[in-house]
Amino acid sequence: MNFFKLIFPGFVVSMAILALLAFAGCDVERRKSNAELGLNPQQAEGRKLYDDYCDRCHEAYSSRGKKGPRLQGVFKQQYLSISGLPASDDRVAEIVKNGRAKMEGFGQVMTDQQIQNLLAYLHTL
Ligand code: HEC
After folding, report:
1. CA of 118 to the centre of ligand 1 (A)
2. Which residues partner with 86 through β-bridges?
3. Whole-number pLDDT of residue 94
4. What is the pLDDT of residues 11-55, one digit of tens each?
5. Strand, helix or coil at 19?
6. Which of 6, 72, 79, 83 is the most exposed place for a label (fewest CB within 10 A)?
7. Which residue minimizes the CA distance to atom 43 of ligand 1?
């Protein structure tokens, strides 16, 4: 009985730590390579831009929101979730260039070609 009292708390603590590690593991999902995602060179360029400029506020591969709404499947729906604008190349390019209320614009940072590359990547999400 004394033995059990001694071992049991240790067992509970280790199980708790294991459970925590398992949960943390779900969060740090391995980043897929461009090849695994099947990206062509233009889309891969766009992914780089996305990582530099968009990823800190928008999730690409999860339905979670960050500061902004997720962009997973952004072109698979007819309308954008917040503004209700059509999910078209033209509207999204405009948003990227000029920004929204709580999002800065990137018209000064990216060339039109870069925005096209970014859109090509967003279409793969
Ligand atoms: C500083 C955080 C931030 C960054 C960086 C950012 N966004 Fe946003 N974005 C937001 C927020 C917040 C909203 C929604 C709120 C609003 O409409 O003001 C938004 C809205 C959008 C929308 C419209 C969504 C809708 O449903 O109407 C699109 C599309 C979008 N962002 C794409 C991008 C892309 C592409 C980039 C990278 C070039 C980017 N954002 C960079 C914060 C950000």
Report:
1. 13
2. 79
3. 97
4. 666 666 566 656 655 555 689 999 999 999 999 999 999 999 999
5. helix
6. 6
7. 103
Q: Indicate if the pLDDT at residue 10 is higher than 90.
A: no
Residue in 124, 94, 117 with CA at minimum distance from that of residue 106: 94
Among the atoms of ligand 1, which is closest to the Cα of residue 101?
18
Residues 92, 6: Cα–Cα separation, whole Å: 62
pTM exceeds cut of 0.85: no
The Cα–Cα gap between 118 and 42 comes to 8
Segment 71-109, tens digit of pLDDT: 999 999 999 999 999 999 999 999 999 999 999 999 999
Q: Where does ligand 1 bind, in terms of residues with CB under 6 Å?
A: 53-54, 56-58, 67-69, 71, 80-83, 85, 92, 95-96, 100-103, 106, 118
Nearest to residue 103, comparing CAs of 73, 68, 75?
68
| Both structure tokens of 119 | 């859109």
How does DSSP classify residue 100? B
Nearest-atom number in ligand 1 for the CA of 110 is 38
